[in-house]
């Protein structure tokens, strides 16, 4: 719409404005009507005009600032490498120790809530105490890992996922322990997620020690149901994926094989490395139990499905055959072996009948 151009005299206020077209005998009521109409127009138009002027000015200054600053955007791969190279997770000195990694902070216990899930969240300490009592391991020879920081976790995880762990309801869903949802998040961070982050640090460190000494064992970790953007199955952080990415950058390793013998499918690392030719995945699992992740199954390089009730002899026969095939298909520089105790006979989650020995009720449970 086009409005007529008005010219005002500086000596007169606008409501006394006259044009040569105004008839001398215009009535007072007509003048008041014109004046009211002009007031209304100005009242409606002024905010719109002011907004347009401000918006144009903002756009101008934004554009000027952007053009005057150099591009600082870092691509995802460069940012990942930067985070890995600045990490402290490789710092613990293990030159005089056995490459067995464990911390007393691994064990999760809080008012018995951990017993509401069949996963034994204090098994890690019992394993180390057993090894020490049998003389296989000395306390001072164990390597104590550092906690994985937020920057470390961002190597694999999205910020959105890590932020979701600040909600106790989400952590309760991942750990499958409903009462966790009612706990304040600071307590969940301290009693549940901190032990997980310490175990993540152990898994990452294990790759370095294996490179240095030929082998290494992280007593904890193996959270194979967690991927970069989601957790589940008592797995809150993707420690296997983190370990491998650190090995790519810091250890100059380019070929990694994952041998996952947990009775459950390792859908987390499968989703993370599904299209990565540097990683070969051999997963031997029971397809009749959690997680039923059909999408992740498509990413497995070598799939070995063992049904519920599979015996020890049959299991070992299939495993030997699978290892021979894997060795002929891929030449790894690093092997990540995820050893799940849920393949043991009597485990409440695995459903297999392997290794028919047990040290008592609850002594060996799911990994």
TrEMBL record:
It comes from Gossypium hirsutum (Upland cotton). Residues 117-353 form the Histone deacetylase domain. GO terms for biological process: epigenetic regulation of gene expression. The lineage of its organism: Eukaryota, Viridiplantae, Streptophyta, Embryophyta, Tracheophyta. InterPro entries: HDAC_classIV (IPR044150), HDACs (IPR000286), His_deacetylse_dom (IPR023801), His_deacetylse_dom_sf (IPR037138), Ureohydrolase_dom_sf (IPR023696). One of its GO terms (molecular function) is histone deacetylase activity. Keywords: Chromatin regulator, Hydrolase, Repressor. This is Histone deacetylase 2 isoform X2. It comes from the Eukaryota. Its cofactor is Zn(2+). PANTHER family: HISTONE DEACETYLASE 11 (PTHR10625:SF23), HISTONE DEACETYLASE HDAC1-RELATED (PTHR10625). One of its GO terms (cellular component) is histone deacetylase complex.
């Amino acid at each position: 719409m086009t409005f007529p151009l008005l010219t005002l005299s500086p000596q007169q206020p606008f409501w006394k404005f006259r044009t040569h077209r105004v008839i001398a005998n215009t009535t007072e009521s007509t003048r008041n009507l014109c004046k009211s109409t002009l007031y209304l127009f100005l009242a409606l138009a002024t905010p719109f005009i002011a907004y347009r002027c401000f918006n144009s000015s903002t756009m101008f200054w934004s554009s000027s600032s952007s053009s005057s600053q150099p591009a600082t955007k870092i691509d995802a791969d460069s940012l990942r490498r930067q985070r890995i190279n600045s990490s402290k997770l490789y710092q613990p000195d293990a030159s005089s120790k056995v490459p067995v990694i464990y911390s007393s902070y691994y064990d999760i216990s809080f008012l018995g809530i951990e017993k509401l899930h069949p996963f034994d969240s204090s098994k890690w300490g019992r394993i180390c105490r057993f090894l020490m009592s049998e003389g296989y391991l000395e306390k001072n020879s164990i390597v104590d890992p550092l906690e994985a920081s937020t920057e470390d976790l961002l190597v694999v995880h999205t910020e959105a996922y890590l932020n979701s762990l600040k909600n106790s309801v989400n952590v309760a869903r991942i750990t499958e322990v409903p009462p966790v949802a009612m706990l304040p998040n600071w307590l969940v961070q301290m009693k549940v997620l901190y032990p997980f982050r310490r175990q993540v640090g152990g898994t990452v460190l294990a790759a370095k020690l294996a490179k240095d000494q030929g082998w290494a064992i992280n007593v904890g970790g193996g959270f194979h149901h967690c991927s970069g953007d989601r957790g589940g199955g008592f797995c809150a952080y993707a420690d296997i994926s983190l370990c491998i990415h650190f090995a790519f950058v810091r250890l100059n390793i380019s070929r990694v094989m994952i041998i996952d013998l947990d009775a459950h499918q390792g859908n987390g690392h499968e989703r993370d490395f599904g299209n990565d030719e540097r990683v070969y995945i051999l997963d031997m699992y029971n397809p009749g139990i959690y997680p039923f992740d059909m999408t992740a199954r498509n990413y497995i390089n070598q799939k070995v499905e063992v049904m519920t009730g599979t015996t020890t002899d049959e299991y070992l026969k299939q495993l030997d055959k699978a290892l021979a095939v894997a060795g002929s298909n891929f030449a790894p520089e690093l092997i990540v072996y995820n050893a799940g105790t849920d393949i043991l006979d009597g485990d409440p989650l695995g459903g297999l009948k392997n290794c028919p020995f047990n040290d008592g009720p609850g002594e060996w449970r799911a990994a």
